[in-house]
Amino acid sequence: MKVCRTIEEMAFYSQDARASGRDLGFVPTMGALHAGHLSLVERSAAETDSTVVSIFVNPTQFGPGEDLEAYPRDLEGDSEKLKALGTDCLFFPTPEEMYRDGYATYVTQERLTGVLCGVSRPTHFTGVLTVVLKLFNIVRPHRAYFGQKDYQQSVVIRRMVKDLDVPVEIVVLPIVREDDGLAMSSRNAYLSPSERNDAVCLHRALLRGRELIGKGEASAAAVVKAMRGVVEGSPGVRIDYMSVVHPESLQGIEKIDGAVVLAGAVFVGGTRLIDNIIVERS
Ligand code: AMP
After folding, report:
1. What is the pTM of this model?
2. For residues 227-255, average pLDDT
């Protein structure tokens, strides 16, 4: 596995791969890799000629007081996992390399970034879009793989790619979960054993919402109330939001008469976790 630490090295690797006619797959991550990340790497390895994975804990997507410093980092373990899957190239830049002296340019997006996670993390998606566009420009992949786990992120990135004519195909893959349903996340490492038990209430709440819709409930308010009720049954868990939204506009809806996304974010102790389910109404 080739390891690139600088933008120049990474860009050279990509140019070379493209010049020899190879299809490039790209999986951007913040590291501390788990089976969710690895599902994206496996799919890229199966569908493209060369897979590039980036590991970059991007400072611009963390707000003040968030967990930038504490975010888990495990380069050695991650490298082993990536090698075992046949990853061709790891891009592992420093923050100074990505945001060089005098850095001044950011990508903002209207509408889609002001809802759901954007309410409590108002600068988050600007950081995400900025780093993802930079990574696309450096790696120049044919396809890039993202997880449905970060549903809003996937919608926001698709919108950017469309709006700014970025020549990359976006592939979004399903959420990989622990046996009890908790969505895998690098942040799960923060949870104490009792918090880990509590954390599963988020997924249970979404399942409860899906069940109600399956039984014919058409009122989004009733579904939200039921989902909140499940989370409120776990005293150590605080709700950031529990919402029923349109899959593309991400706007809250009142009457459920088509596909919707049930999305939630909660704090378990100091750890913020997110999850979602897409529900197709038949
Ligand atoms: P992160 O390292 O958290 O920035 O995530 C990197 C990529 O992995 C993003 O596209 C995430 O949506 C995706 N991802 C994270 N957790 C999961 C999961 N449990 N299942 C599938 N994809 C995931």
Report:
1. 0.98
2. 97
Q: Give the model confidence (pLDDT) of 139-190 as tens digits.
A: 999 999 999 999 999 999 999 999 999 999 999 999 999 999 999 999 999 9
Quick: pLDDT tens for 72-84: 999 999 999 999 9
Residue type, 281: R
Ligand 1 mean position, distance from CA 218 (Å): 31
Closest to 209 in 3D by CA, of 223, 220, 221: 223
End-to-end Cα, the chain, rounded Å: 46
Which residue's CA is minimally distant from atom 5 of ligand 1?
A: 29
User: Ligand 1: residues whose CB is within 6 Å?
Assistant: 29-30, 36-37, 39-40, 146-147, 149-150, 175-176, 183-186
Q: Can you give the chain as a three-state secondary structure string?
A: CEEECCHHHHHHHHHHHHHCCCCEEEEEECCCCCHHHHHHHHHHHHHCCEEEEEECCCHHHCCCCCCCCCCCCCHHHHHHHHHHCCCCEEECCCHHHHCCCCCCCCCCCCCCCCCCHHHHCCCHHHHHHHHHHHHHHHHCCCEEEEEHHHHHHHHHHHHHHHHCCCCCEEEEECCCECCCCCECCHHHHHCCHHHHHHHCHHHHHHHHHHHHHHCCCCEHHHHHHHHHHHHHCCCCEEEEEEEEECCCCCCECCECCCCEEEEEEEEECCEEEEEEEEECCC
Residue 249 tokens, joined? 């506009």
The number of residues in the chain equals: 282
Going from the Cα of 185 to the center of ligand 1, the distance in angstroms, rounded, reads: 7
Q: Is 124 a catalytic residue?
A: no
* Catalytic choice (34, 37, 124, 203): 37
